[in-house]
Amino acid sequence: MPTLRALVLCCSLKPSPAPSSSELLGRQVLTALADHDVDGEVIRVVDHNVRFGVSIDEGDGDAWPQIRAKLLDAQILIIATPIWMGQPASVCKMVLERLDAELSETDDQGRLLTYGKVAGIAVVGNEDGAHHVTAEVLQALNDVGFTVAAAASTYWVGEAMQTVDYDQAGPKPDTTGKATTGLAANAAHLARLLAQNPYPAA
């Protein structure tokens, strides 16, 4: 079985080395993917000079082209984002805006370069909103060419108006853990199928 690659884009607002619950859950997805012969890496987006815009390269030291190269080399993309005010983090929205440029990038058969790539999401927060964030992000990723597997999300939200974060809450094997392993299994399965049977020419 060939090894696939995954890229986890962590959309925490906090630069490294600050602890990040989003990065923790994203890394747990990557660990679960390893059980299905998928390797990869986590990139915390705010550690890089990613500029606002909707092109593949905004110039002036924009770090997105280097991140995009890794995305194009991967078969699976996982967005790991916190919830802020019931919404995906601003960093997540910036990433989606940059991915909008993929609508203009096609291969020699007229297909988007994102066709055949599988998307998933990992969400953390201290209040409700995980389903809303999942819906927004997966719809946006599908719009720009990614394929969404069954049960393509994992999440954890703490008690409302409390201060405990996911990285402080301890293991959740029967809830978030099961969602994480399900996401990994389905994403790897679908990515392998698409690698063997690409979408038809446009």
UniProtKB/TrEMBL annotation:
Domain NADPH-dependent FMN reductase-like: 5-151
Source domain of life: Bacteria
Pfam families named in the record: FMN_red
Protein name as catalogued: NAD(P)H-dependent oxidoreductase
Source organism of this protein record: Paractinoplanes pyxinae
